[in-house]
Specification:
The chain has 19 helices and 12 strands. The protein is of the alpha+beta class. It has 4 domains: 174 residues, no CATH class; 69 residues; 110 residues, no CATH class; 90 residues, no CATH class. The strands form 4 sheets. It has a 4-stranded antiparallel β-sheet, sandwiched between helices. Strands 1-2-3 form a 3-stranded antiparallel β-sheet. Helix 1 packs antiparallel against helix 4, helix 2 packs antiparallel against helix 4 and helix 8 packs across helix 10.
Length: 498
């Protein structure tokens, strides 16, 4: 990220706003305990709320109070930005008609900045969602209908957030989050978590607004979740053809709700995006992540300018501060990864050294982890990575972290663990060709085929781009990635025998 992605001279400063919102999301539960003299050191939080039921309730109420305030403020900002963007896009059309290049460029820059602010704010709402889900990464993946962040409709979002707040005031141990404010929840209007029951339970809520929806719900309930021909004819006669379509949409939405909840409660169901059966498994391997490595790199880059780390011989991380990035630029970062990938110590990069210049185009792609995270929807939001001062440094370009996966070395490491890996093409996926896109850095492949070496009893499995991206987006180390692969084979074998 660069500072200009979020700050613009025509807009109010964004960093103070974001800092205040982070305080509401992360600090209000602790503040409530400290105000009641129930907690001195935040490091003792877990032991205090585990040992004291009253402290636990006060902490939850404090969190929910802060989240509700944050939800309102985030919603107001997102709606205001949406209205600004719509106006600017109309002005852009006029500039395009007039071929005013200067106005066009200025307008595009301002729109891009505002839209990036919207994404950052909605990922902060995702942070609340992750707290509700107890950081279970797989749940948001099951609530998406497509791989894009849905646009907001200002009037609808304003009403939904107000409904959520009204419900939150009724019981402070319950919290309701507007689904449209998040990037990932494409079903339901509200996500609810209740700490009244133990263990806490979460659910999806569909708001029934308007007289027509209430009447259509009665027909659906009468048909036990379905519409008979008789029901359809009655709806058409009483309310028109559009009401029939609306009733069918309501049924589809209810079906999606049931499948999401069934997957949560039973570990199997229907994937609502691809409409295919799924069977989930618990990830029982010890977590091996490189989150701490990122923190160490950021700390070092702050003072030294550049810091490098290689995880499991095949995953490379480079952190730079803003001063170093200004000197290096994108080409300088590329050059650094070139030397890391090919183990070249001496630097001879120049306009005359065509071999090295050509070699820069042969490296595996690398990615800005913050930029990648903001638009990825389902992984833990950037706000959950590190302490807040690091996060703000990353968001506003004072620090940057880039990551590169070396597939050659990953395949070699897999071989040492008893796997055989190969690139697979789209035709190999058969009826599931739509499930994966091209993998950056691959030979136009859409996945990796994996076998257990010397054991034909295990069927080959396909790893698609979403699974590979976990190394970038969930801080999964390659070692844990391979451990999960082994678990996947064991799970599949047990499921077949069962």
């Amino acid at each position: 990220m660069r500072k200009q992605d979020l700050e613009h001279p025509q807009l109010e400063a964004f960093e103070p706003i974001l800092g205040q919102l982070c305080s509401l999301v992360f600090e209000q539960g602790i503040a409530a305990l400290q105000k009641a003299a129930l907690l001195r050191d935040p490091k003792d939080l877990i032991s205090v709320i585990d040992a004291n039921a009253s402290a636990f309730r006060r902490f939850i109420r404090g969190c929910h109070y802060g989240w509700d305030l944050a939800q309102h403020k985030i919603s107001d900002l997102v709606i205001d930005y949406e209205q600004q963007v719509r106006k600017l896009k109309q002005e852009l059309k006029e500039s395009l008609r007039n071929r005013d290049r200067e106005a066009i460029e200025k307008n595009k820059q301002l729109i891009a900045c505002i839209e990036t602010r919207q994404v950052v704010l909605r990922r902060l709402a995702d942070t609340i969602l992750y707290h509700l889900f107890k950081m279970q990464n797989w749940i948001p993946r099951r609530m998406m209908l497509e791989y894009r962040i849905h646009d907001i409709e200002p009037d609808t979002l304003r009403k939904t957030v107000q409904s959520a707040s009204d419900l939150n005031r009724e019981e402070r141990l319950d919290f309701h989050l507007a689904a449209d404010l998040t990037t990932t929840v494409h079903v339901g209007d509200l996500v609810k978590v209740s700490f009244v029951s133990k263990p806490p339970k979460w659910s999806l809520i569909e708001l029934k607004e308007g007289k027509i929806n209430a009447l259509l719900s009665e027909f659906i309930e009468e048909g036990k979740g379905n519409l008979t021909d008789e029901h359809i004819n009655k709806i058409r006669d009483q309310f028109g053809t559009k009401a029939v379509s609306q009733a069918k949409r309501m049924i589809r939405q209810q079906d999606r709700h049931r499948e999401v909840m069934r997957a949560v409660e039973t570990d199997e169901g229907i994937d609502i995006m691809h409409n295919i059966p799924i069977k989930l498994k618990p990830e029982e391997v010890e977590i091996e992540e490189y989150r701490e490595t990122i923190g160490n790199l950021c700390e070092k880059a702050r003072t030294e300018g550049v810091a490098v780390s290689i995880v499991d011989s095949c995953f490379r991380l480079v952190a730079v501060n803003d001063e170093s990035y200004e000197k290096l630029g994108r080409i300088g970062i590329t050059h650094l990864f070139y030397h890391l990938q090919f183990g070249i110590r001496d630097c001879t990069l120049s306009a005359q050294n065509k071999d090295e210049l050509h070699g820069l185009g042969k490296i595996y792609p690398f990615f800005d982890l913050v930029q990648m995270n903001l638009h990825a929807m389902w992984p833990p939001p950037v706000f959950l990575w590190l302490p807040q001062d690091f996060i703000l440094d990353l968001l506003f370009g004072r620090l940057s972290v880039f990551a590169q996966l070396d597939y050659t070395k990953l395949f070699e490491r897999a071989g040492s663990k008893g796997f055989e890996m190969r690139w697979i093409q789209q035709k190999d996926l058969g009826e599931f060709q739509s499930l994966s896109g091209l993998i950056p850095g691959s030979p136009n492949a859409v996945g990796i085929g994996v076998k257990i070496a010397n054991d034909p009893s295990y069927k080959e499995q396909f790893i698609l781009i979403g699974y590979l991206s976990r190394m970038f987006l969930e801080f999964m180390s390659p070692s844990q990635f391979l451990s999960l692969l082994r678990k996947d084979f064991d799970f599949a074998a047990a499921h077949r025998s069962g």
